[in-house]
Amino acid sequence: MTFINLPPAPPHIEIVHVGGPTVLIEIDGYKIITDPTFDEAQSIYPGPVTLHKTEAPAVDRKDLGKIDLVLLTHDEHADNLDHSGRELLPLAQHVLTTQSGAKRLKNNAVGMSPWDERRFRTPNGRELKITATPAQHGPEGIEAVVGEVIGFVITDVNSQQDLFYITGDTVWYPGVKMVVDTFKPKYIFAFAGAAHPTEVPVRLTMDTNEVLSLSHASPNSKIIPVHQDNWQHFTQGKMLMDTAFAMFGLQKRLIDLAPGTRMILNTADNN
Q1: How many CB atoms lie within 10 A of CB 247?
Q2: Is residue 188 part of a domain?
Q3: CB–CB of 217/184 below 8 Å?
């Protein structure tokens, strides 16, 4: 009798875009959320740079149920962690963030440096590996001004698939290129919008050109732009992104994740 070793079944994945940088990712029932922001529209966050939220979240925080893991790219900016998002953190089972962020947040927050790994299991026993990735929130040397930022890669250890790359707030720079050279993510959540607060003389996140560069550097990945709307400091949005990808014949590479809509992703084949 001949036995055939079949590859592990791909995970069942559903995603919901809450708004801004906040995405719910469910992998075999294991709930992961990125950069939780749930404050209402017209919220204002004063400081050296005053941020204005223009749109409400598409999903109420209470409707998400118990969160297993928060992937927090950084804690110092309200558009990535607002007041309601902070209230969610101690309710989650695990929180991964920057080393400096974990020291500020304490409680269940665990600090990671780029290329650090942590492993978790879904309810059905699937093993997920979370790798922290480098990010640069503006031009070189910006860390002293805006603080530390990381991204994340989520890998299904059982099927040996890199499922998601969450860029975090970053520009296109060699660190991001290194990530897509190292991993082969099925899907990339590209934090875009060309953020440019009026008090800051430089651009702080990827613009449309740089998201196109990211897509070329990772040609087998589907691109899911997020964090390009909902806040006053974004200078480029969905319409420009859609137009640019269409101009280059790349519209099939782009996934339009409408806020509040639950989408089932196919991890077996991206073609």
Answers
A1: 10
A2: yes
A3: no
CATH number reported for the structural domain that contains residue 207 in this entry: 3.60.15.10
The C-alpha atoms of residue 73 and residue 86 are separated, in whole angstroms, by: 13
CA distances to 166, 172, 238 from 207, rounded to whole Å, are 16, 9, 11
DSSP 8-state code for residue 174? H
- Token readout for 36 is 């939780």
pTM above 0.90, yes or no: yes
**Dist. CA 250–CA 234, nearest whole Å:** 23
For CA atoms 160, 161, 164, 170, give the dihedral sign.
positive
Domain count, the chain: 1
Q: Looking at this protein, which amino acid is placed at residue 145? A: V
- 206 lies in some domain: yes
The amino acid at residue 220 is: N
> Across the strands, what pairs with 265?
13
Q: Give pLDDT tens digits along the chain (271 positions).
A: 555 555 578 899 999 999 999 999 999 999 999 999 999 999 999 988 999 999 999 999 999 999 999 999 999 999 999 999 999 999 999 999 999 999 999 999 999 999 999 999 999 999 999 999 999 999 999 988 899 999 999 999 999 999 999 999 999 999 999 999 999 999 999 999 999 998 889 999 999 999 999 999 999 999 999 999 999 999 999 999 999 999 999 999 999 999 999 999 987 754 4
Q: Which domain holds residue 178?
A: 13-260
Tokens of 193: 């919008």
